Structure to design on (869 residues):
């Protein structure tokens, strides 16, 4: 076999992989542990779980370590891993109204039933670089944790420990519904949701398919399109009726006791319901507010708000702006697909380019 | 008691069977032999190679049916147990099994797909006495079919023993508005198979 | 539960040809329908693979659904077996199937390719699997999937013809170079994948079956053997292929193959080499005779 290129190709790939590993490890710092990523890079882990479409902080953190922190690459690793997992059973619908609240706010009303719970947020932090973090010691870490525990009145004050009664936090949208200001929930069983990972889907996509695609969409992509809608390429002027972050239980039907359920555990979910412009639904006399819904794994408010805005935008009866076009929004916001295709332009294209050269030279009348 | 058959390897027998099916549908009228599987308890009258075809293609995401289902409860149970695929009425099923020797009206009611999704149409499996390239290979009445169209170089000749010609006539009707139509496989107990896509023009010689 | 509990017990075990049997069945069902509807794009779920989208996952899923232990596999990219991505895909398939591989296109039972067909016409015992980035030929004139689906359903290809006509008016000829839209079986308009014009005749009335897979766009389609595949052309402006007149391959001397334009790493001088590296090697090794007839 005369072609040196073959052996060269294999060697080049292997050397590249060795180089990647070397670049990750050659510094004088100790190897970062998966546990450190899980503990101290929560929002990044949450983002990768969300875009990878798999709820597992451990696997997301491992992917991030392998990808040296690149969230697109880590999400891809997680997605590919997810494809290999056996599908055992579908869960029962997760009840977010039964969530253990970690954070819960509404912009629609000053005070709401159950109260505004600020929780953990960077919204009101001053964005000033904190240089003391460069020398954070384990001792300082332990001291800070002790001090916080001492500062809360009881163990119930620690996040995740507090058994905050879910029924305290009645959904704001429920109130609006009761007053007829928001359309009532559709009656009847919507049937099983589409599974975009196992079935081929076609546009126009049903709402369960659209929400699934948004749930694992890339944060920057949905943010850009939602921003376009908020800013002027669209007519969605949202008010956040409710944003809630908390732990929701995942339950499956009992394998042999009919009618019962088994709780598997809980997941952190961010959920946003926006109320947007007035609409008059088909066949209805009275106008109501329109709703947009966004939810994702983990704590990611920018994504949840953006997807709620896009959910509402895509319901527009006569779409004219990019964020209102289902195909435009859903086909271009999957990070794995978009980054894969973007990157594919690095592959050799010299045959197709030769075909282009031939056409151009022909049109110009040049020949070698 | 319906037995769950274990004589079909999900990985390798599916793969080998599929290659024959693909070749058959790509070359209408070519007779091929499917790999052997040993089934211990097929119901009386059931053509065992049809199970291999169904096991290769079916799972919980699709559905099967049987022409003349009302007479074949045992077959339905056998297939439900062995395919883990839901049984549906002929109109709604993706894969439909027929006794090729006796025309069943269900054939005319199969799903022909839609203009936008012509691939959603059903696929029929016709179990016959003999799928033969040459009518000299057998005694008894045969249907000599001449096929033209995609996959066929000039003409292909197929001799089918135990095929009710009403199936050919009904097939022509079902496929007259391309791309709507049904695609079918002929299979016999000796594991011989031939494929006829909706694009084939079939004449009875 | 500890982190230790989450680590897989025996390491990761691959299924034969990597994808699970459910995924293979779905692709197989789609391919049988695709063959019955030449040139029509059949949707499939296309779950993620460890290879990036846009890098051949569609072709790969087709190959993975077809391949058996007795197949002989050839994988090329731009006609070359040694191309980095072809090497990578070959690695994955061999690791998960153990099949024999070849660079000689005549020996292959399955040939997966990006952007080229082999110079030696394929035969009845061979299947070509082409990698497709953009399966929809009507995307040239229409961005919406819902609308292009309707156009195919109704055979409404007028806008495509208008676009080609406008191209001729503006440029003197059709400026489309690769992936030239073709009419299959006088029915559907299809993208042949980014093949150069040079290769299109090899799809027409071929001895072999061609399957095309687009993983990111989630479509498969097929050209059965002995099926007409005609590039869209105007009666008075016949379709032409790339012009390599006066040029020849510096390695084997062929004057009738698709030639890559190479720039020497040292001297910067340009010269030509067969894109089909396997063919070039066979000629150099004296295993086949250079065709004396010019490209038909």
């Amino acid at each position: 076999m005369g072609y040196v290129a073959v052996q060269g190709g294999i060697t080049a790939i292997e050397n590249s992989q060795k180089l990647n590993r070397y670049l990750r490890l050659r510094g004088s710092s100790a190897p970062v542990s998966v546990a450190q990523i899980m503990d101290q890079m929560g929002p990044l882990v949450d983002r990768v779980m969300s875009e990878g479409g798999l709820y597992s902080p451990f696997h997301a953190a491992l992917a991030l370590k392998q990808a040296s922190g690149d969230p697109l690459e880590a999400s891809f690793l997680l997605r590919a891993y997810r494809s290999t997992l056996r599908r055992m059973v579908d869960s029962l619908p997760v009840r977010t109204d039964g969530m253990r609240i970690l954070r819960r706010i509404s912009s629609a009303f000053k005070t709401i039933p159950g109260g505004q719970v600020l929780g953990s947020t960077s919204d009101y932090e001053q964005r000033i670089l904190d240089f003391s973090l460069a020398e954070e010691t384990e001792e300082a870490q332990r001291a800070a944790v002790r001090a916080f525990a001492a500062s809360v009145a009881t163990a119930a004050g620690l996040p995740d420990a507090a058994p905050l009664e879910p029924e305290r936090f009645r959904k704001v949208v429920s109130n609006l519904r009761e007053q007829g200001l928001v359309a009532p929930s559709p009656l009847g069983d919507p049937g099983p949701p589409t599974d975009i990972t196992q079935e081929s889907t076609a546009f126009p996509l049903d709402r369960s398919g659209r929400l699934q695609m948004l749930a694992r969409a890339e944060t920057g992509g949905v943010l850009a399109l939602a921003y376009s809608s908020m800013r002027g390429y669209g007519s969605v002027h949202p008010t956040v009726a409710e944003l809630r972050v908390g732990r929701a239980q995942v339950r499956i039907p009992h394998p042999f006791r009919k009618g019962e359920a088994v709780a598997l555990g809980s997941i952190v979910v961010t959920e946003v319901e926006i109320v947007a412009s007035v609409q008059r639904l088909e066949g209805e006399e009275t106008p109501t507010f329109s709703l947009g819904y966004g939810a994702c794994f983990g704590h990611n408010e920018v994504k949840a708000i953006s997807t709620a805005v896009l959910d509402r935008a895509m319901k527009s009866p006569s779409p004219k702006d990019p964020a209102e076009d289902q195909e435009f929004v859903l086909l271009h916001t999957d990070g794995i697909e978009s980054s894969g295709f973007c990157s594919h332009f690095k592959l050799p294209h010299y045959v197709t380019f030769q075909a282009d050269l031939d056409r151009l030279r022909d049109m110009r009348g040049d020949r070698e | 008691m319906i037995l769950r058959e274990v004589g079909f390897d999900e990985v390798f027998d599916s793969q080998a069977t599929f290659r024959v099916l693909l070749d058959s549908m790509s070359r209408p009228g070519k007779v091929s032999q499917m790999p052997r599987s040993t089934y211990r308890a097929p119901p009386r009258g059931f053509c065992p190679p049809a199970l291999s075809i169904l096991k290769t293609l079916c799972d919980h995401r699709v559905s099967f049916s049987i022409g003349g289902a009302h007479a074949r409860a045992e077959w339905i149970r056998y297939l439900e147990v062995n395919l883990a695929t839901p049984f549906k009425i002929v109109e709604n099923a993706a894969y439909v099994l027929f006794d090729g020797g006796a025309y069943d009206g269900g054939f005319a009611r199969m799903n022909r797909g839609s203009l936008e999704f012509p691939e959603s149409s059903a696929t029929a499996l016709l179990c016959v006495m003999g799928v033969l390239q040459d009518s000299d290979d057998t005694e008894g009445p045969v249907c000599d079919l001449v096929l033209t169209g995609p996959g066929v170089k000039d003409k292909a000749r197929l001799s089918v023993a135990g095929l009710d010609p009403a199936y050919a006539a009904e097939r022509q009707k079902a496929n007259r508005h391309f791309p709507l139509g049904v695609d079918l496989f002929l299979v016999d107990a000796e594991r011989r198979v031939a494929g006829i896509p909706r694009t084939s023009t079939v004449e009875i010689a | 539960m500890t982190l230790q509990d989450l680590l897989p017990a025996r390491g990761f075990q691959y299924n034969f040809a990597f994808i699970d049997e459910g995924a293979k069945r779905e692709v197989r069902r789609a391919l049988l329908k695709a063959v019955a509807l030449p040139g029509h794009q059949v949707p499939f779920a296309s779950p993620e693979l460890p290879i990036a989208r846009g890098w051949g996952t569609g072709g790969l899923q087709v190959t993975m659904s077809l391949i058996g232990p007795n197949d002989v596999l050839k994988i090329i990219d731009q006609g070359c077996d040694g191309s980095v991505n072809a090497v990578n895909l070959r690695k994955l398939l061999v690791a998960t199937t153990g099949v024999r591989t070849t660079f000689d296109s005549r020996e292959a039972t399955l040939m997966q390719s990006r952007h080229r067909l082999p110079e030696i016409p394929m035969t009845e015992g061979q299947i070509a699997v082409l990698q497709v980035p953009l399966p929809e030929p009507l995307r040239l004139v229409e961005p919406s999937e819902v609308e292009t689906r309707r156009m195919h359903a109704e055979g409404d290809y007028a806008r495509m013809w208008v676009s080609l006509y406008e191209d001729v008016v503006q440029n003197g000829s059709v400026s489309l170079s690769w992936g030239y839209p073709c009419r299959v079986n006088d029915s559907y308009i299809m993208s042949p994948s980014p093949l150069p014009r040079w290769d299109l005749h090899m799809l027409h009335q071929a001895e072999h079956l061609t399957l095309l897979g687009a993983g990111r766009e989630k479509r498969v389609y097929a050209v059965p053997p002995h099926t007409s595949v005609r590039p869209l052309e105007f009666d008075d402006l016949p379709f032409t292929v790339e012009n390599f007149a006066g040029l020849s391959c510096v390695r084997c001397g062929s004057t009738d193959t698709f030639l890559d334009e190479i720039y020497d790493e040292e001297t910067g001088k340009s010269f030509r080499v067969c894109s089909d590296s396997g063919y070039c090697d066979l000629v150099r090794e004296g295993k086949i005779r250079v065709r004396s007839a010019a490209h038909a």
Q: What stands out?
A: DSSP finds 13 helices and four strands in chain A. Strands of chain A lie at 100-105, 239-253, 261-279, 288-297. Residues 4-25 of chain A form the longest helix (22 residues). Chain A touches chain B at residues 198-199, 202 (CB under 8 Å).
